[in-house]
Amino acid sequence: MKKLTRQIRVGSVPVGGGAPCAVQSMCSTDTRDVSATLAQIAALAAGGCEIIRCAVPDMDAAVALGRIKHESPIPVIADIHFDYKLALQVLEGGIDGLRLNPGNIGDKWKVGEVVKAAAERQVPIRIGVNAGSLEKELLERFGHPTAEAMVESALGHVRILEELGYQEIKISLKASDVMKTVSAYRLLSERVDYPLHIGITEAGTIFSGTVKSSVGLGILLADGIGDTMRVSLTGDPLDEVRVGYEILKSLGLRQRGVNFVSCPTCGRCQINLIKVAEEVERRLQGVDKRITVAVMGCAVNGPGEAREADVGIAGGKGEGLLFRNGEIVRKVPEDKLADALLEEIDKL
After folding, report:
1. DSSP states along 140-151
2. pTM of the full structure
3. How does residue 151 score in pLDDT terms, banded at 50, 70 and 90?
């Protein structure tokens, strides 16, 4: 069962309170380049991204983000560090959310100014704790950036906002170490009811990062923890969105796009199944239909899996059987299998 957290809103997207875990990403463009950033946001939104975050390194970026927000098809979060004036500027520009650690902003009156402006506009603040940038006193106290140290850091930032009467809060605790991240979220989840943004930070390239993120986020989501999520990958942010939905889909938590099934191949396979499967998966990337598609290689499990799918193929010798809704449609030569499968999907 998903843990019931208090609900906030990031623009039009409900977060927590029983809402499904939202998939978000972060732009890799220079925020000061408005056209490039908007182009990337449009591509991410088309791929299913529901919330986007943009870096705000200076005042030029803060001003540009106001223009970006007003043309963005999805809610925009500003990533702010150290300078409270940047936060005030993006709030004035209409931003949907702040990623800001109040303990890093400086004097309490500065935090107060930010909170006042955020409260007037009902803009939530995400406290983002990272194992690589914990406070010096916590490192001295715990010796290392432990899960307990991360939780203490988060609670310290939360106290600052609560003392100012602000509770439109979301929290994240990220580390590149999977089990440290899992432990930190589990500990925090027992102590607060604020919505939690989950992720494995600096996870790596698309291969290693997908594996680490799938393991860590899968554990947390299965525990009922996670109100928004980002899969952090070194590469195209669109891959972060695709992997995020695949993780949610595999746990039965969200459904976007096609549920694609293919066998691992073995010595019984007599078609180039890898080529067919990769081509079909590539061509299905832009298809958002709630269907299951199976690409199977031989007569052992193939016909059964293909029958259970909405559309599927089961390979034979240089050819394959095409199934739709559990019934054999026809035999198809190997070099026509991908085309035939896509044609049947179009007919659904």
Report:
1. HHHSS--HHHHH
2. 0.87
3. very high
